[in-house]
């Protein structure tokens, strides 16, 4: 089954990544080791995902078995961003 979660703000990205990590039973130290960053950096990336590089985002997604997809929004007005 495919589960898609729209990410419209940097803050929601951090929550999605943290939720996926926890759902897999991983702590920040374990995921950080997979991605090649420190636990402190992983914590910062979950709290402030606007500081993620594209490479880091893709590495985290890969480590969590996630894929990044870009899609057009429906015709609803765009919400305010937090970045």
- By CATH, the architecture of the domain at 11-63 is named Orthogonal Bundle
CATH superfamily of the domain at 11-63: lambda repressor-like DNA-binding domains
What portion of the residues fall into strands of 2 or more residues?
A: under 5%
Low-confidence stretches: none
CATH topology assignment of the domain at 11-63: 434 Repressor (Amino-terminal Domain)
Helicity range: 40-55%
Mass-distribution shape = globular
> How many beta-strand elements?
0
Overall pLDDT metric:
89
Q: N-to-C SSE series? A: HHHH
**Rg (C-alpha, Å):** 13 Å
Number of helical segments? 4
Termini separation = 32 Å
The top-level CATH class of the domain at 11-63 is: Mainly Alpha
Judged by helices, strands and strand pairing, the structural class is mainly alpha
Q: How would a textbook summarize the main sheet?
A: none
Topology (elements, then pairings):
Blueprint lengths: L9 H14 L4 H8 L3 H9 L6 H10 L20
Helix pairs in contact: 2-3, 2-4
């Amino acid at each position: 089954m495919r589960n898609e979660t729209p990410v419209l703000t940097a803050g929601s990205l951090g929550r999605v990544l943290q939720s996926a990590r926890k759902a897999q039973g991983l702590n920040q130290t374990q995921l950080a080791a997979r991605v090649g960053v420190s636990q402190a950096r992983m914590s910062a990336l979950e709290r402030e995902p606007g500081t993620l590089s594209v490479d880091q985002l893709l590495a985290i997604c890969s480590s969590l078995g996630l894929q990044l997809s870009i899609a057009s929004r429906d015709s609803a007005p765009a919400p305010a961003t937090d970045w």
